[in-house]
Amino acid sequence: MFLYYNLKTRLCMTTNIMNVTEGQRAAYLLDAQNKAVQLFAEIEEKLIRPGISEKTLSDEIHKLGTERHGVKTHWHKRVVRSGPNTLLPFEENPPDRIIGEDDILYVDLGPVFEAWEADFARTFVLGDDPNKKRLRDSLAPVWNIVKSRYQANPDMSGEQLYDIACEEARNAGWEFGATLAGHLVGLFPHERIPRDKISLYITKGNDQKMSNPGKDGNKRHWILEIHLRDNENKVAAFYEQLLTVD
Fold first, then answer.
1. Is 0.85 topped by the overall pTM?
2. CATH number, domain at 215?
3. Closest by alpha carbon to 184, among 158, 162, 205?
4. For the chain, how many structural domains are there in total?
5. CB 192: neighbour CB atoms within 10 A?
6. What CA–CA distance (Å, rounded) separates 232 from 234?
7. I need a surface site. Which of 3, 132, 169, 206 has the fewest CB within 10 A?
8. Residue 99 has pLDDT above 80, yes or no
9. What average pLDDT does this structure show over 131-139?
10. Which has more confidence, 6 or 213?
């Protein structure tokens, strides 16, 4: 009876979630992001420090999210990268590294709050290195410029927006450091096509309008990623959040 009740309750919850309006869907995604903002504020205040390994910091983030922020699952792996590891693509799993006194690092999380995905990344600088600080401080302005150019033409393709992200990275004095500049986000798990690394991403080769609806007919929502690479000093920085919900 208990198992039947739980299954029935979960089915009812799923039905209710699937029937939400577009305005409600956007509000749920924004709420998930706001919760991620709160989680990151506590990560910065309590956890980020020199002398610990990336793995230790990742484990502490997991514990904090579970115990204080109600995060039961992440829709992608937790990523903590510091120093030269910041240059590596998401798919890599580099050897664990100790975070230094004068280091740069980023945290990339995909926490699921209730049934809705967040995807959020921020870069942090320890110490007073002016180049690392300038790299970090370039992220939000570049993100905002790219967003404003998207908003001027929301029917643009994923490839067009990727090219804009690369252009604005160069305008800020850096190189764009990844093969994609974002992806879909939504109700967990969001729309996916096995082995498709093009049509659901902001990347080269995606000639589809970003405004196209999803398979369910609903508006699709996107995450915008900004990857800035400092080739001279061999470090990178990363910043991501919702593009299509304010």
1. yes
2. 3.90.230.10
3. 158
4. 1
5. 10
6. 6
7. 3
8. yes
9. 98
10. 213
